[in-house]
Amino acid sequence: MVQDTTELKVEGLHLKFGGVKALQGVDFDARRGEILAIIGPNGAGKTCIINCITGFYRPQKGNIFFQNHDITGFRPDKVVPLGISRTFQSIQLYAGLSVLENLMAARHHLFKSNWVEELVYFGRARSEESKHRRKAEEIIDLLNLQRHRNEVVDVLPYGLRKQVDLGRALVQEPRLLLLDEPMAGMTVEEKEDMARFILDVQEESHITIVLIEHDMGVVMDISDRIVVLDFGRKIAEGPPDMIRHDPAVIQAYLGEEVKSQV
Asked: Where are any strands of DSSP class E within the chain?
């Protein structure tokens, strides 16, 4: 019997806002342990897909399956416990808390102690906090944030705040990680660091990663497969080398500059 390696499956997804058709019958799947990139011009529907998967939007038609379970229309608070976490285009951190406190807050849904135990910091609450702190410290070490663990995130440089945002998603121990432009606004050096962190996470944890990113150099370097959207429709899907040479992709997104380089 052949084992199904599909972690995420999107079938015939349609999403519209009034007369605007954001997604028009989008199909794709993400295989267990791979990095799948979704690319396309601004307004192509990339973030809409992530918002549908995570329950922020409810599609009018189509289905979303995670580990063979239909999660179409699930609310965000029902999606996260399944093992799906995400980052956002704009950084979503608690500005007045430290790096460590932000990571601990992201694990709150994993706490099993009741409010009485937490109030008096007794028994299970104490042992749970130690467990969750260890996991947060592991992520801090993975992202090289050791010397910033106790700094308030609001005073950190932009690139470090993006790393903390990634850390908040990772500390939830996801099976599926959705990254919405994790390198937007970063310097070249910061992008290189972030790409390395993403590859390290994929190699060490074998989680499935869906990546939205505009930097084509990064996408081509770290992705196993690429899905290309244009005006809410999928126009291509395949490994980076195939996408790089696809005439429809070049015309719609990559441009003549890339065409001259391939």
From this structure: 6-17, 20-31, 35-39, 61-66, 69-70, 84-86, 176-180, 208-212, 225-230, 233-238
